[in-house]
Structure formats: C-alpha cells, structure tokens
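Human: For the file, kindly provide a plain-text protein record giving the amino acid sequence and the backbone structure tokens, at your earliest convenience.
Assistant:
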Amino acid sequence: MATSHLLAAAVTSSSSSAAFRRPLRRLSPPPLSLTLSRRRPFPVVRAADADAKETTKPKAPEKAPAAGSSFNQLLGIKGAKEESNIWKIRLQLTKPVTWPPLVWGVLCGAAASGNFQWTVEDVAKSIVCMLMSGPCLTGYTQTINDWYDRDIDAINEPYRPIPSGAISENEVCSQLRVITQIWVLLLAGLGLGALLDVWAGHDYPIIFYLALGGSLLSYIYSAPPLKLKQNGWIGNFALGASYIGLPWWAGQALFGTLTPDIVVLTCLYSIAGLGIAIVNDFKSIEGDRTLGLQSLPVAFGMDTAKWICVGAIDITQLSVAGYLLSTGKLYYALALLGLTIPQVILQFQYFLKDPVKYDVKYQASAQPFFVFGLLVTALATSH
C-alpha cells in the first residue's frame, strides 16, 4: 500500500499527584459511526521500557503553526501552515505525499504484464487505476489512520488536522465530515475497481477484490482490536505489501494475468517495503513508546532497529537480483545490483549515522534508486 513524518512530546506527572488522579479511559470510537459524547482526555498508557510507576499524557497544540508552509499543508507533511479552508483540510487528511508509491506500483504492474501499449485507451485505464490506488484508497487509509491515531499524533504529528484542532473531534459536524470522507473515498475506490474489471473484460472481478482486500487490510492496520501497527513486524510488512504488492497486482491484472510467481516475487519485495516503513518509525519513537506501540525501534532499540531496516532493504534487492540472474536475466540483474549499491553507500553516509537527523535526506537520496529497481524488476518479468 505507503513515506511519512512524526513529532514527539510527553508530560509526566509527579507521584504525589498521580495517587489522586482519576483513571483515564482510552478514546476509540468507531470511524464509521457517530459518537455524540463530549470530548474525553487522551489516554495514558505505560511504555514498554518506561518506569512502571510513571504515566504520561500527551498534549496537542491548539493550532498548527501559523508560519508554516501552504505546500506542506496540502501534502500533509511536517511544517504545515494553519488552514481554515475545509477542502484543503480534507485534502491534508488524505496525505497526498503518500500517493506516489502507489501510482508507481501500478506503473510497475502494467510494465510487468508485457501487454501495456501507449494507446489512449491503455493510458486512460492506467490513470483510472492510479486514481483508485492513490487518491481514493490511500486517501481512505490515511483518513482512517488519522482518526484512530489522533492520540499518538498529538505527540508525533501535532500539525495533523485532528490534533492541531483544525478538525475538532468533539464536534458533531467535524465527526460527520471525517466519517463522510472515509465512506466517499472507500466507495469511490471500490467503484473504480469494479469499473476497471468491466473495462478489461474480466470474468472474475479481480481488481475489485484486490481493492476490497486492500481496504480491509488498511482498516485492521489502524483500527482496534487488531490494530496491526501495534506490532512492528506485522504492521510494517502489511504497510510494505500495501505500497508495493497491491498496486503492482492491480496494474498487472488490468493489462495481463496475475501469476503465482509474480505474487511471490512482490511479497518478497514487500520485505524491502517493511524496511522502508521502519525508517519512518525512528522519529516516532517517543510517541510510540509512550502509547505502547511496539515499533521495532521501541522493541529493539535504535541501534539494532536501524540494522534490521537496512538489512531488509538490501538483502531483499540482492535476493531479487539473484533470482533474475538464475532465470537468465543477466542484464536486468546487473542493473538492479547497480541500483542497490548507491543505496548501501547512502545508508552508511546518512541513515546509519543518525536515522532521526538524516531521515529526510536519506529517503530523498536513496528512494529513487529503490523505485527504479522496482521498475527494472517489473520489466525483467515481462520478457
């Protein structure tokens, strides 16, 4: 299914006042139903490695910084400007900065099919598939995630619409806006999936079922009781599969046949997606620890987690290069190897030195090599 950017702040109370504090309850209303109760305080959860006697309560700022960037606000990333236009806030909820990997995944799937032609019809089909995967279903995923993560976003991403106060969680109208947006994006994505099946002449609605399965995965990733993101291994692999496997499958099914070997190959590549997802966990470590999310940096510590991260990325690509070589695709294997080497160099230059400080710089410099490696692999499988 994602690249994303978190802040942290926590407040601890003294032992004398904690003894008389009334217990706080976790706020977790379902996203697709309306709750009319008044706003309750954010939950207090013990961190896995924190002092057992300490409790923490996140505080959200009342507003996003007024001096922020309008461009960042539209993309849904750090440094967002305070905004009152409801349509811009709705767009921010969908976090457009996370759409491009899904769009690229559809492109790779179309290339892997070997049947894509530069005709008006094929280009139109691919654009519709990209709209389904990016703005609709990724937008749905991000909106769901914002709703259920409003407590942790108050620590990690206080500029997001809900913790910043741009959308008030205790107002009926604001709740209706979020719930309506979730349903509209979900139904639009499923509708486009069904349309693509008809357009492609499928006897079995495979794209619709891929969209439906991806939507369910997105829901259980963010929502209790499963909330896959609470476990660093399961949650990050689900995220990697959503951003690499699902859009690839949709693109390939649209123009060709989705074969078992491609499913296995893209699932393997999703392990690299797990590593990329871990990159974003480092700057969220304080909020994750505070609210009990067992991300890999929380569970293993930063030093171990950063090696798990680069290992997942590099070993996966080397394994895929070995697979391509074993199937007689020498030049494609060498091309993938050539695209992996700069990533390793950049990992040592930036990420392994300080995964928090150099997070953005590393991703901006290394990810282009990774995504072109995906395309090389797709082209190799098409021949």
Summary: The radius of gyration is 21 Å. The chain has a mean pLDDT of 82. The chain has two domains: 68-257, 259-382.
